[in-house]
Each structure stands twice: as C-alpha cells, then as structure tokens.
Design brief:
The structure holds two protein chains of two kinds. Chain A is an alpha/beta fold. Chain A has helices spanning 2-18, 39-58, 78-91, 103-116, 144-157, 172-188, 206-215, 226-239, 280-293, 301-319, 324-332; strands spanning 25-32, 66-73, 96-98, 120-122, 137-139, 162-168, 191-198, 219-221, 245-247, 267-271, 336-338, 341-343, 355-360, 366-372. Chain B is of the alpha/beta class. The chains are: A alpha/beta, B alpha/beta.
Chain lengths: 374, 619
Amino acid sequence: MKKLFLILLSLAMITTILLVPAEEVIKIGGIGVLTGPNATYGLAVKNGADLYIEELNNAGGIDGKKVEVIWVDSQGDPAVGQQAYYRLVENDEVVAILGAVLTGVTNAVADAAVEDGIPMVSPSSTAYEVTTGRPNVFRTCFIDPFQSVMIARYMKSKNYKNVAALYDTGDDYSTGLYETFVDECGKLGLNIIATEAAAFEDVDFKAQLTNIKNANPEALFLPYYGAPAAHILKQADEIGLNVPFIGADGISSITDSISDTSLLTNVIYSDHYNYDAAGEVALQFLKGYEEKYGEPPTVAFSATAYDTALVLTEAIKIAGTTDFAAVVDAVKNIEVEGVTGVITFDDHNDPIKSAFFTTFDADGNKIFLERVDP
Amino acid sequence: MAKNKTKSYTINSFALIITFIFAYALISAGKINNYYSSMLISVLIAIIMTVSLNLTTGLLGQLCLGHAGFMSVGAYTAGIITKSLPDMPFGLSLTIALMAGGLIAALFGFLIGMPALRLKGDYLAIITLGFGEIIRVVIQNLTITGGPAGLTRIPRMSRALAESPKESAAIQFAIVYWIMVIVVTSIFTLGRSRHGRAIISIRENEVAAEATGIPTTYYKLLAFTFAAFFAGIAGGLHAHQIGMLTPKYFDFNKSIEYLVMVVLGGMGSITGSIISATVLVTLPELLRDFAAWRMVIYSLTLVLMMIFRPSGLMGTKEFSLTATVDELEALCHRVFKRKERKPKLPFKPHYDVWEDQPVLETINLGIQFGGLVAAENININLKDNEIVGLIGPNGAGKTTVFNLLTGVYEPTQGDIILLGNSIKGRSTHEITNNGIARTFQNIRLFKSMTVLENIKVAFHTRMRYSPLSGIIRSDEYASEEHGIDIRARELLRVFDMEDVADDNADSLPYGLQRKLEICRALASNPKVLLLDEPAAGMNATETQELMDTIKRIRTRFSVAILLIEHDMKLVMGICERIYVLNYGHIIAEGTANEIANNQDVITAYLGMAQEDKEDRALC
C-alpha cells in the first residue's frame, strides 16, 4: 500500500508539473461522453463549445486573456464523470464547468460541484431535477417536462384525438418525457389509446408496433434517441404503420443512424432551435461550424453548447473575476443572445425558451414547421 | 518463534497502520486533493469487490458473472436508508445503512445460491448472469429506487462526515480503508481456517471433497453469501462516495470488470486481487492524457498479461505480507495473554465394538438407471477388521456398488446397514462422517493443496470451531488447528510421508499419490474403508508395498476394508474373502482358493471352461 501510495503521489507530481501553463489562460473544464454509444452527443457538445471559444480567442479572448476548454471523457459513467470533475477542479484548476452531457453524469458531477460552488452549465441535461436545489448549476437546453407539454399541445393543435406512445422503460430520458406527456394529455383531453414499452437497448420493436398499429392512432409519441428510433422507423415501415412519429430533441441524431432517409418525412420533433426561424447569431454559428468541421451540425446540442460557452465566458467578463460566487451570480442574471435565442434564467436555473417543431425532407434535411412558445 | 520472524512481522503489520496515518494526514492537510483521494476511495472499493469475488471465483472455483448485482443491492439499500434518515447523525445512519446493505445483499446471495449452486460451471455462470440482469431491471422499474433516472442526492461521505471538507474527506478515507482491511483480513483468515480448506477442496475436486466429509452445498452457500455480503458493503460505500446511483452502472460489464480484476490478479490470490484492482482502477485514470489511446493501452495491457501470465499476476500465491495475520494473532496472544495454548486433539468418533455382527451389510441392494439394471440383489457384508475383495470383469458394476455404499447413487431397492443403522438415502458427506471412507479409481486429490492440507481437509468434521472463530482466530481456532496439525503429521508419519508434507499433492510420484489418497480417507477415522483399484498403474514393487500397507492399516486403524482390484496377486494375497460380481449380480463368494476354482467365475472372466492356473492375471 505504501509503495503504491508513493507511486500515486509521484505520478501526481509529474502530472502537475506537466500541466503548469506557459501563459495566463482562463481554463474551463468540459465534461462529456466522448466515447461509447452516446458519443454523438458529447462530440456535438465539444464541437459547438470549441467553435465559440475559437471565435472568442480570435476576437481577443476575455480582456486579453485566452480561454481554453480542457475536455475530459465521462464515458457516460457517473463515477468516471465525477472523478473527471475532480481532476479538472483540483489538478487543472478550471474556473467553470461546461457539462456534463448525459443526465446521470450531470447529476453525479453536480453533487460534487455544489460542494465546491463552482459555476456549472450543462448544454444538454434536460431532466428537471438536475438544477433543483443546486444554486450554481444551470443549463442552456430546455427541460423534459417542457418538451412533453409542448409536444402534447402541438398534437392538440393538429386536432389529433387518439394518439399512441412507445417509450423505453430503462432510460430516464424516455420515461421522464413519457410521464409528463401522459399528464399533459390528460389535461388537454387527448386520448392515449395504446401505450407500449420496450426495454433499454432493445432492437426489435415489431410486437409493440403491431399492437400500436392495431389500435389505429393518429400519431405516435416516440421519446427516443436517434439510434433506437431508426430501428423503430424501419420496423414500423415494414409492418405498414404510417402515422406521424412525434419525438423530442433526442431524436434529432436519427440522421446519423438511418439508411433510408425517405422514412424521415414522418418524423416531427421539438428542437432547441432552427436556422430558418433563428436570427443572426444562428446563421453565423451555422457558417462557422461548416467551415471548421466541414459539415453542418446534426444534433442541436452543438448549438446549446455554443450558447453554454457564450454564457460562461460572458459571465466571467461581466463578473470581471473568476471567483466562483461572482461568476455564478453573473450567470444567474445574464441576458445574451445565442444561437437558440435570447438566454435568461428562471428561478430554477432553467433557460426561458421556445420549442421549434421540425421535420425532415426525403433527403434528411431539417424542415422548420412552427415555433411554440411557452 | 524466531526473533527475526517477529521483527518481520512487526514491520509488516505496522505497515498498514503507518500507511493509514500517512495517507490520513496528507488528506486532512489537503496535500492529497479530492482527485487523488476520490481515486483512492474507488481503488479501495474495487479491492473489496475483487477480493470478495475472489472468494467465490478463486477459492470456491465457481464462476460468478453477477457480482455487480449484489453490489447494486447493497448500494441501493444503503442509499435509500441514509436518504430516509436525514435527522439521524450521518455517522450512525451510515453505519446502519452499510450493515443493512451488506445483509440484504447476503440474503440475495443466499436465495440465489440455494438453487444456483446445485449447478456447476457454465450453468452457474449463466444463472448469476441472469440474476445480475434481473436485479438491474427490477431496480430500473421500481419507484423507490428512482427508476431509470436513478437514486440521487444520497449524502456523500466526502462532505457529510465533518464540518470541514478536508476533514470529511479524511474520515471518508479512514472508513473505507479500515472496512477494506477488515474485509480482506476476514477473507484471508477464513481462507486459512478449516472452513477455507473446505471451500478450496470443493474447487480442487468436488466429488472427493464430498467423499472426504465436506458438506459441499453448505460451503458453497457460505462462500457465496459471504461474498455477497462484502459486495453489498462495497455497494453502500460506492453509493455514499458518488452520491447517486443509476441502474445502468451495475450492468453486466461491471461484473465482468471485477471478474477481469480477479483473473488478472490470479484466481485464489488475495494479494493478486488487491494489486490488480489497484492497477485496473488507476490505469485508465492515469492514462487520461493519452485520451483516445487510453482504452487501447488498457486493453492491450490485459491481453498481454493474459498471454504472458495466464494464471494471473500472483497465480494462487500470496505476497509475503500475508504472514502478518498469522503473526499478528500470535503476538496478540503473547502480549495480552502470555499463556501457552494447549493443542486440542481431534476427538475420535466413538464406535461400539462389533465383534460378530458385520460392520457393513447390504440387503438386496440394487439400482436401476431408467431401464438398465446396473446392480441387483447385492448382499455383501464386512466384519470388523476384515479385508474383503470385490472383483469382476470390466463393467460388472463394482464401482456402482461403491457409489451406492457412499451415497453417490441412491439405491432403488434394498438397504445398507452401517454399524446397525440404515444409511440409505444419506448424502455422501454424512455417510463419510458415519464411518465409510473411500478412494477413487482415478486418483482424486486436492491437487494444488499441500499433502498436509489434503489430510487436514479430512479432519474437517472432527473440528468444531465456527466460521466466525476462524475469521477472528479465537483460542478455539488456535487449539483445534494446532491439534489437527499434530494428528495430520502423525498420520503422514505412519505412511512415511512426513518429509513431503509441504509439497503440493500433484507434485508427488504416482505411488505416493495413491498412498496419500488412502491416508486422507483414513483421516476421517472410518470404520469401513473402500479402496477402488488401489494398485492400478503400480509396478510390482509398489504393489507389494501397497499390500503391506493395507495389512498394516487394517490392524493399526482397526478398519474393515473392501477393495476393488484387477490385480489378482494382490486380491488373492491379502483378501480373506472375495465377492465376484458379474452383470450386476454377485455370482460367487468365498476364500481366495474357492473363488479361483469356482466354475462360474472362470466362465464369467473367460467365457469358457477349464483353466487351472491359480494366480493367473484374470483381467
């Protein structure tokens, strides 16, 4: 044990020496799932945030100081994420946290971040509870209950009477959306005539889809991420289930997973922003993203991450210091225009935003349908 | 005890305390920051998980693919308890939570173990795999566990234990460190007690363990339950380290991760487990700077290890520090008690004198396998101190008779009377404890145990101390262990095997392995000894020596001996009576001379009449 300890200690020293910065920079810690099945989201976040920081540094940084985001991979594992957090705060001495991406990891990181009081903004953790009772934890994406409410209202506005739902019992994102959706449908008088559940990582949904088809709904609520949703669409097509598939922001990554893009014309989802509906900043972001990465962003989290980087650096600029409490205070009172609209925070540290309903054309390009305001 | 040994012990045992004080001071002074202290906590928890899994996988030899399942049970139980007791001082609610987590996990281990441990090898692995998944899915669908979103806002040890964060982190380290020390020490001492020997003997050879008098089902359950208990405690610690739990965390991969640690460290080596848990937890973290390559380096390390050290870092061996525990206990006794322990010699089972009646008698014994009648109307009896042969052509059913007598098969007809009582339907280990011991046609030794340990396993049921006494090394443990050490060496001396006492059983020459098996059978102090082809594979000199040995043990240990043998020189030379078995029936009984001239016997062996040579090898 003692030997091990000495080894650990010497490694710690070496790491510290290696990481001593050459010039004064403002360091922000980025935590995201950069490997594994959910890496799409983590990499989207990384790309979006890096883009903003690059633009900021080209424009002179914050009061002449460069900003650097140090990225660590959470692997989608809460324990690894928390360990990574400590590394960022203790060894890299970052002044703010950008992340985490997945709700589970964000919860674990936030638990530690609350104790340190460090400003933390997640671009993508949509579960309601994440910011509850955590005064220094914010997010730039909208929350799950909000999306479900908006989706139910959207369905109501289309005069649907009987709808169905298929959700994943093993995924907190999916069950969270589903539960609020049921509540809101009840309030709006929308009938859910078929509810089917699948287990986490299922790939065969034919039994559930057949039951749904037999119930003959007007639309199917599909709170899924892109990869499983691609399976569902393909199998629905095979059994001839042809209704609008209405999902939330998670489904936006479906273009990465589906081979037959003509199936996407049935998909409608609530997104964080849409270029057709957005302002100057969004168009600038789109242009910058394509220049830097050679392709347009697929997942909206690139945009929310861009906004997150914007919020954090603006707050540091406003506070004029990197003192945790001062920056947290600046974030709380911020009002900036980002890609996804003007960002201000409510009492629960959530942004006040609109939902942008979006669909696809047969080539998989996003088509803006309408904007629903809260 | 030699002075330098005492000295080495002192250094070793205080290493634990010094390491602790050193680390504790650095953490509470903030010299070790949260990053390293939380990594350290993860390492300690992984050590508990790995060492406890090593109990089932390494020592018991049963592949368990659901260890993370037990961890999750403990984690959720503990997390729910501390969350629901917010008003209680955290130290107290944490203690309750950890104990409850361990106990509930142990309960699950027990419930899963009961049906699962009747199965072996791959089947058990699949059941434990299924269990892990069931637990995960159940947790995922319960409201009390927070469903798929997980259980959040569990009080974290790194802050909830004291006012100052540094102090709290230091106390967290203290708690996890000492729990780790207790768990590792308990598993280590348990492994060195009679209970540990019983568990290891099951890994080595389950059939032989049962025949040596070990209640194998009981010990499998014991090991399984203990391992689950410790995994539950580790889970509780994990819950209060991270502050949140998600069902996905405890999936199949997590179980595999711990299994990899056990295999890498060496199955059965506790220190190996400690080293590999430490390395495998810190390695990915230390390799972070290599970003994308770190998982490749990590995996490559595993692959290379398995190629160049297939038995793991330590094999089944232990690091020298392990002598600590033995010596710690010895010193405690010297310092605090200063009294000499008297060895408690294993008691001799009491057998009444059976002069005229047979010690073992079968009445119309028989067994059918489906439609096949393997043995029928077997009536044999053994008087005290008699040497009786059981012969017959290949496939006559001789070993079947042995298996009936020892409870491996349950007879479908007839009865077996041992010392006046029926033993029909008893399990093998009960029959062994009632006075029948056996050897096997193909030698079944506990191969990787030493000669002495092989013998000690057979003394198992003549010892009394409990698993707890074994773990805490009570006086009872010490005097009984001392006693059987004396007895086991005495027994080896009778067989002239004292000088190989500390050799591994599988390193012995063939003849000695046979002898050791007989010796082990005698250690359970039987009234009847069954020898299944003791001379198989022996040369003439060895056979002659064996004959002398058999005669000698008959008088010295006062046993009746029933032996199956094809070597007619041996059978005719030492058997007072001989039974001849053919097609599952006794076709003749009598003295050597009578049998050699019996027409039925000759026909049975040769299928024709007229051969008059007496000592011809009939097989």
